[in-house]
């Protein structure tokens, strides 16, 4: 697959000091995301991205329960653990994007939860992360994975086609735009768990089943794992009914 068409050409011509530069960069980012989606719809195996994303998502789901119980001594320790347990050691562009997405997701979750700053710095999270934080981490990871993958693609193009643009770092802006664009498409395990519990109570499900559904440590990792195909399908444009705006209607 090549990003050497209209999206790549537009990026090569982009200048940070030009008129409407920010708006134009948003349009370029949308073009790159659209190009990725169209490529994967035509060939789901392209780059191995779909399988890599699903595998990483399943591994992340498996780690959530232990993070709820154990937490981490520091941000660096959390990132190192996730890179090791989620990122794997593959050498493809997709594998590298997953590993970078881990660090980006931790950073973005801290932005979403300012209260974590003091707690992480003080090591107070060693007793476990709250589930709302872990569910945000799950959502943000998939979005950042797409952004980081496109960062790699764009960086490769920039180096080959217009090295002068490296100094402006447009690929970082594109990665952030893409992650922000797709994050709300990712299902949230906590919200899915709440809906399941409400439904179970509404139909008077057996108390043992309801009790299990209300145990986050037992149920949320399972729910998160079950949501992986939907999460990957949405961020990669393979499930398109909810993609609107720059992405347009389902193909």
Tally of alpha and pi helices: 12
Helix content: 55-70%
Stretches where pLDDT is under 50 for at least 5 consecutive residues are 158-168, 198-213, 242-251
Mean pLDDT: 77
Note the beta-strand portion.
under 5%
Radius of gyration, Cα only, in angstroms?
19 Å
The count of DSSP E runs of length 2 or more, i.e. the number of strands, is 0
- Class derived from helix and strand content: mainly alpha
End-to-end distance, in Å? 19 Å
Give the overall shape. globular
Description of the structure:
- The chain has about 250 residues and is an all-alpha fold.
- It is about 70% helix and about 0% strand.
- Helix 3 packs across helix 12 (about 230-235) and helix 9 (about 190-200) packs across helix 11 (about 215-225).
- The two termini are about 20 Å apart.
């Amino acid at each position: 697959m090549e990003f050497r068409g209209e999206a790549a050409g537009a990026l090569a011509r982009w200048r940070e000091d030009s008129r409407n530069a920010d708006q134009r960069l948003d349009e370029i980012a949308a073009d790159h995301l659209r190009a990725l989606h169209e490529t994967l719809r035509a060939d789901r195996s392209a780059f191995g991205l779909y399988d890599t994303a699903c595998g990483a998502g399943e591994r992340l789901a498996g780690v959530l329960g232990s993070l709820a119980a154990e937490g981490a001594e520091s941000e660096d320790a959390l990132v190192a653990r996730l890179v090791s347990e989620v990122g794997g050691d593959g050498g493809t562009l997709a594998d590298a994007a997953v590993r970078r997405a881990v660090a980006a997701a931790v950073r973005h979750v801290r932005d979403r939860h300012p209260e974590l700053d003091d707690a992480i710095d003080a090591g107070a999270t060693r007793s476990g992360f709250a589930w709302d934080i872990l569910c945000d981490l799950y959502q943000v990871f998939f979005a950042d994975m797409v952004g980081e993958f496109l960062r790699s693609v764009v960086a490769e193009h920039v180096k080959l086609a217009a090295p002068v643009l490296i100094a402006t770092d447009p690929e970082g802006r594109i990665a952030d735009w893409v992650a922000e664009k797709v994050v709300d498409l990712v299902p949230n395990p906590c919200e899915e768990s709440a809906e399941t519990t409400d439904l179970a109570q509404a139909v008077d499900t057996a108390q043992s089943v309801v009790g299990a559904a209300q145990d986050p440590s037992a149920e949320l990792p399972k729910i998160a794992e079950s949501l992986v195909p939907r999460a990957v399908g949405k961020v990669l444009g393979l499930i398109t009914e909810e993609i609107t705006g720059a992405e347009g209607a389902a193909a």
